[in-house]
Protein backbone atom coordinates (compact mmCIF):
# COMPACT_ATOMS: atom_id res chain seq x y z
CA UNK A 1 0.00 0.00 0.00
CA UNK A 2 1.14 3.53 -0.79
CA UNK A 3 2.06 5.82 2.09
CA UNK A 4 -0.36 8.71 2.45
CA UNK A 5 0.10 12.07 4.17
CA UNK A 6 -3.16 13.56 5.39
CA UNK A 7 -4.80 15.46 8.19
CA UNK A 8 -5.26 13.28 11.26
CA UNK A 9 -8.70 11.67 11.45
CA UNK A 10 -10.64 10.58 14.51
CA UNK A 11 -9.89 6.95 13.60
CA UNK A 12 -6.14 7.76 13.76
CA UNK A 13 -6.18 9.35 17.20
CA UNK A 14 -5.07 6.36 19.26
CA UNK A 15 -2.27 5.36 16.87
CA UNK A 16 -1.15 8.96 16.33
CA UNK A 17 -1.12 9.58 20.08
CA UNK A 18 0.96 6.45 20.72
CA UNK A 19 3.39 7.41 17.93
CA UNK A 20 3.70 11.00 19.18
CA UNK A 21 4.36 9.80 22.73
CA UNK A 22 7.04 7.38 21.52
CA UNK A 23 8.92 9.84 19.30
CA UNK A 24 8.11 13.37 20.50
CA UNK A 25 5.83 14.72 23.21
CA UNK A 26 4.49 12.54 26.01
CA UNK A 27 1.05 13.70 27.01
CA UNK A 28 -2.23 12.25 28.15
CA UNK A 29 -4.72 11.17 25.51
CA UNK A 30 -7.04 13.97 26.65
CA UNK A 31 -4.28 16.57 26.17
CA UNK A 32 -3.49 15.05 22.76
CA UNK A 33 -7.13 15.38 21.68
CA UNK A 34 -7.18 18.98 22.91
CA UNK A 35 -3.94 19.71 20.98
CA UNK A 36 -5.35 18.25 17.76
CA UNK A 37 -8.71 19.94 18.09
CA UNK A 38 -7.19 23.34 18.92
CA UNK A 39 -5.37 23.41 15.54
CA UNK A 40 -7.01 20.70 13.40
CA UNK A 41 -5.62 22.06 10.13
CA UNK A 42 -2.06 21.56 11.33
CA UNK A 43 -1.85 17.95 12.56
CA UNK A 44 -0.77 15.56 9.82
CA UNK A 45 -0.07 11.85 9.84
CA UNK A 46 1.69 9.64 7.36
CA UNK A 47 -0.02 6.27 7.17
CA UNK A 48 1.02 3.02 5.57
CA UNK A 49 -2.18 1.03 5.47
CA UNK A 50 -3.59 1.44 8.97
CA UNK A 51 -0.18 2.07 10.58
CA UNK A 52 0.82 5.62 11.54
CA UNK A 53 4.45 5.94 10.45
CA UNK A 54 4.90 9.68 10.85
CA UNK A 55 3.39 12.77 12.44
CA UNK A 56 3.81 16.49 11.83
CA UNK A 57 1.96 19.11 13.84
CA UNK A 58 2.00 22.73 14.81
CA UNK A 59 0.12 25.66 16.27
CA UNK A 60 -0.12 29.40 15.79
CA UNK A 61 2.55 31.41 17.56
CA UNK A 62 1.37 33.22 20.67
CA UNK A 63 3.95 35.96 20.03
CA UNK A 64 3.67 36.68 16.31
CA UNK A 65 0.45 36.52 14.31
CA UNK A 66 2.25 35.71 11.05
CA UNK A 67 4.16 32.70 12.48
CA UNK A 68 3.02 29.10 12.62
CA UNK A 69 5.13 27.02 15.00
CA UNK A 70 6.12 23.52 13.98
CA UNK A 71 5.77 21.73 17.33
CA UNK A 72 6.76 18.24 16.25
CA UNK A 73 7.75 16.11 13.28
CA UNK A 74 8.91 12.50 13.35
CA UNK A 75 9.08 9.39 11.20
CA UNK A 76 9.19 5.76 12.36
CA UNK A 77 12.88 4.96 12.88
CA UNK A 78 12.53 1.15 12.86
CA UNK A 79 15.30 0.25 10.37
CA UNK A 80 13.51 -2.93 9.33
CA UNK A 81 10.57 -0.88 8.01
CA UNK A 82 12.53 1.53 5.79
CA UNK A 83 10.64 4.73 6.64
CA UNK A 84 13.56 6.80 7.93
CA UNK A 85 15.71 8.91 5.62
CA UNK A 86 13.63 8.27 2.50
CA UNK A 87 11.90 11.67 2.27
CA UNK A 88 8.81 11.12 4.42
CA UNK A 89 9.78 13.90 6.83
CA UNK A 90 10.47 16.32 4.00
CA UNK A 91 7.16 15.42 2.36
CA UNK A 92 5.26 15.95 5.62
CA UNK A 93 7.03 19.27 6.10
CA UNK A 94 6.06 20.32 2.57
CA UNK A 95 2.41 19.43 3.30
CA UNK A 96 2.63 21.44 6.53
CA UNK A 97 4.08 24.42 4.64
CA UNK A 98 1.22 24.35 2.12
CA UNK A 99 -1.31 24.33 4.97
CA UNK A 100 0.50 27.27 6.58
CA UNK A 101 0.47 29.27 3.32
CA UNK A 102 -3.20 28.46 2.73
CA UNK A 103 -3.94 29.84 6.19
CA UNK A 104 -2.02 33.07 5.42
CA UNK A 105 1.02 32.41 7.62
CA UNK A 106 4.24 33.93 6.27
CA UNK A 107 6.75 32.09 8.49
CA UNK A 108 7.22 28.70 10.12
CA UNK A 109 9.23 28.66 13.33
CA UNK A 110 10.72 25.61 15.04
CA UNK A 111 12.96 24.73 17.95
CA UNK A 112 15.30 21.96 16.84
CA UNK A 113 16.35 19.04 18.98
CA UNK A 114 20.05 19.27 19.79
CA UNK A 115 20.96 16.57 17.29
CA UNK A 116 23.12 17.10 14.18
CA UNK A 117 20.78 14.95 12.04
CA UNK A 118 17.73 16.96 13.11
CA UNK A 119 19.52 20.26 12.55
CA UNK A 120 20.68 19.04 9.12
CA UNK A 121 17.06 18.14 8.25
CA UNK A 122 15.90 21.70 8.89
CA UNK A 123 18.87 23.25 7.09
CA UNK A 124 18.29 20.98 4.08
CA UNK A 125 14.68 22.19 4.03
CA UNK A 126 15.82 25.84 3.91
CA UNK A 127 15.20 26.83 7.52
CA UNK A 128 17.50 29.56 8.81
CA UNK A 129 18.79 29.66 12.39
CA UNK A 130 17.73 32.84 14.17
CA UNK A 131 18.44 32.14 17.85
CA UNK A 132 19.99 29.82 20.38
CA UNK A 133 18.14 28.94 23.57
CA UNK A 134 19.99 27.66 26.63
CA UNK A 135 17.87 25.11 28.53
CA UNK A 136 18.75 24.36 32.15
CA UNK A 137 18.56 21.11 34.10
CA UNK A 138 14.93 21.77 35.08
CA UNK A 139 14.01 22.62 31.47
CA UNK A 140 14.00 26.34 32.29
CA UNK A 141 15.16 28.88 29.73
CA UNK A 142 18.43 30.39 30.94
CA UNK A 143 19.39 32.59 28.01
CA UNK A 144 18.23 33.33 24.47
CA UNK A 145 20.55 34.97 21.92
CA UNK A 146 20.34 35.84 18.24
CA UNK A 147 22.58 34.14 15.68
CA UNK A 148 23.52 35.19 12.17
CA UNK A 149 23.88 31.71 10.68
CA UNK A 150 24.39 28.04 11.56
CA UNK A 151 28.21 28.07 11.61
CA UNK A 152 28.48 31.04 13.96
CA UNK A 153 25.66 29.51 16.00
CA UNK A 154 27.70 26.34 16.49
CA UNK A 155 30.57 28.39 17.92
CA UNK A 156 28.24 30.37 20.19
CA UNK A 157 26.60 27.12 21.34
CA UNK A 158 29.96 25.82 22.54
CA UNK A 159 30.58 29.07 24.42
CA UNK A 160 27.15 28.84 26.05
CA UNK A 161 27.77 25.21 27.02
CA UNK A 162 31.02 26.16 28.74
CA UNK A 163 29.39 29.14 30.45
CA UNK A 164 26.27 27.39 31.80
CA UNK A 165 26.78 23.59 31.61
CA UNK A 166 23.10 23.33 30.56
CA UNK A 167 20.88 20.37 29.72
CA UNK A 168 20.95 21.54 26.09
CA UNK A 169 21.38 24.50 23.79
CA UNK A 170 18.92 24.41 20.90
CA UNK A 171 18.60 26.31 17.67
CA UNK A 172 15.43 28.23 16.86
CA UNK A 173 14.99 28.25 13.10
CA UNK A 174 12.56 29.97 10.74
CA UNK A 175 11.47 29.52 7.17
CA UNK A 176 9.94 32.38 5.24
CA UNK A 177 7.06 31.11 3.12
CA UNK A 178 7.02 34.13 0.76
UniProtKB/TrEMBL annotation:
<feature type="domain" description="N-acetyltransferase">
    <location>
        <begin position="3"/>
        <end position="178"/>
    </location>
</feature>
<keyword id="KW-0808">Transferase</keyword>
<protein>
    <submittedName>
        <fullName>GNAT family N-acetyltransferase</fullName>
    </submittedName>
</protein>
<dbReference type="Pfam" id="PF00583">
    <property type="entry name" value="Acetyltransf_1"/>
</dbReference>
<dbReference type="GO" id="GO:0016747">
    <property type="term" value="F:acyltransferase activity, transferring groups other than amino-acyl groups"/>
</dbReference>
<dbReference type="InterPro" id="IPR000182">
    <property type="entry name" value="GNAT_dom"/>
</dbReference>
<dbReference type="InterPro" id="IPR016181">
    <property type="entry name" value="Acyl_CoA_acyltransferase"/>
</dbReference>
Amino acid sequence: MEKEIRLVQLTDYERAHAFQCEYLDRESFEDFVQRVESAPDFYFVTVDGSEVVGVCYGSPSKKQESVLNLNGIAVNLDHSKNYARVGLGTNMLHTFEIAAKNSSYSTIGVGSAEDPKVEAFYLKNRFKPTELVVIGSNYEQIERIGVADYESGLLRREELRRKYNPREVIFILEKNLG
